[in-house]
Amino acid sequence: MPNVLRRPWLWAWLAAAATFAATLALGSGRGAGGLAYAALSFGAFAAIVGVGQMLVITLGPGNVDLSIPATMTLSATLALKAMDGAPDTVLLGLGVALLVGLGTGMANFALIFLLRLPPIIATLAASLVYQSLAIWSNRGLRVKPPQALAEFATGRTLEIPNVALVGLALSIGVWIVLERGVWGRWLLAAGQNPRAARLAGVPVERVRATAYLSVSVFAAVAGFLLASFSGGAALNMGAEYLLMSIAVVIIGGTSIAGGFSNVPGIWGAAFFMFLVVSMLNTYGAGAGARSVLTGVIIIGIVIAASSRRNHA
Amino acid sequence: MTQNNKLFSAAVIGAISLTLSGMTQAQEATADKRVALSNNYAGNSWRQVMLQSFEETAEQATNDGVIDAADAYTTSENQATEQAAQIQNLILQGYDAIIIDAASPTALNGAVQEACDAGVTVVSFDGIVTAPCAWRIAVDFEAMGHQQVDYLASRLPDGGNLLEIRGLAGTSVDEQIHAGIQRGVETHDAFRISGSVHGDWAQEVAQKGVAGLLPSLPEIAGVVTQGGDGYGTAQAFDAAGRDMPIIVLGNRQDELQWWQEQHAKDGYETLSMSIAPGVASLAFWVTQQILAGEEVPKDLTVPFLKVTQDTLESVLEETPRGSVANTVYTLDDAQSVIASADNG
Question: Distances from the Cα of A245 to the Cαs of A101, A248, A273, in angstroms?
Fold first, then answer.
């Protein structure tokens, strides 16, 4: 079998390309540029949270961050409230968002490490606290982002959406760390067999702490960008990114059993998740049919990707 | 003739004083009653304003001695099972009435029946329950859908392509507004719905859905919505560089502000309508009337709050930044809603 067929990211990209073509087929090829631009914009948010989730899932079975939606909401709410729409406060807002990300990441890891709670329980419980903090801090009032920030978030550079450029930069950073850095090797080793990794001298707890901090910071950045992009933070803005963050990781070819990461696949999967909804909307599928078809297509891709890997 | 006039005035004065004394009596009758609000969800700005309206009304009423206590409880997970358990707790705590914004029209009926059997008055609003022993303060969502198309027909006599933004799939509100829009399009057959997306009543979700569908859509003349999705839709049209259609809005402050800006720029006009979150205060006063022993029909209808070009400025002034246009209802409003249901 040719080498390229064994690439786990291939299936996500093939699926994205197929849905792109199918969506355009109905409009007889019109609007390709518009659709690609929209996919890049909205795929970027899914990709940023997906890359974070991937780091945690790579740690092995049971590792997942379910507090991503609440962290996005809290970071966006506090950052936009701090900026209050005033000019020259963009750095302040970004700082608040990053601090929120670090804070929720540390809180999550403290619950997991100190109290020995399973990550699913710890992050789910913590997310109720973060969501309540977001409600309490601003009672759902939608504060507009500063003009310059809104223009940046919705703007483009060289015909590529700025949010996609930010997402790409973050992804390339993670990709380099995973492929070329020591920490990346440690992460994979810890995910494949934590006991063996510990015996081999890998600081497993430090690796785990960094992964949980990273996913929170990525979620906080995504929330900050999304709120700037859509004209304000809303209390339910993170809701769809819980399933999305896990789906893009799995469709993208990262092993759910841990110990194996794949950054390029995340982007293919993020495009696919956006395009499949666009495709079904374009064909006028009802909400029920859309949910069923989305589920069936996802299962199909995961089966295709994993069976190739096993045979390879 | 003079005699008749005198008699008439006497009757009027008598009626007025009767009403006044009746009112004080009705208020005193509930001075020792305790009321609880069981709310299924607090995660958006509409619900936050709703809770605030309830708390303000309840606090005022408690201070005035109209009622002993009125406490608001919200479930954390928006689950019918969780809310049913909460209602059972409220029965055990001995509340005289439970006001419900329900997670499901049918799934709470068991708990609601238990409350009725225990002698607790149950009033549902916004998210209503179908249990026959409960009162319902409902919005005519179908009319809300139909009126959007009526308005577009008045603005665009030649018709055109419409984009429909739907709400949260599987909810009764979404089904009802959608049915109203469908009937509207049948009435005004120059219109055609050429695309629809689910915006889940959230600007981000609507923006994403519309951005993905727009490239395959023809020229769009108007957009019918469900509330909380108009601004996101406008942003998607803007980002795609398409001509701005007439988007029927849903009373969110950012939508109204956007409308004002567009109007200043090129005379853009539209219509905005939604239920006022203050419907919670209406539910409070209706409950108070029931507890006071008034005859109240089981099914009441609350009018929706409309914003037109003429009222835009004043509504926008009163609406806090980032919030939802609101009306807080009074005892008088509750009485007139009850009276109109009696006549209807």
Answer: 16, 6, 10
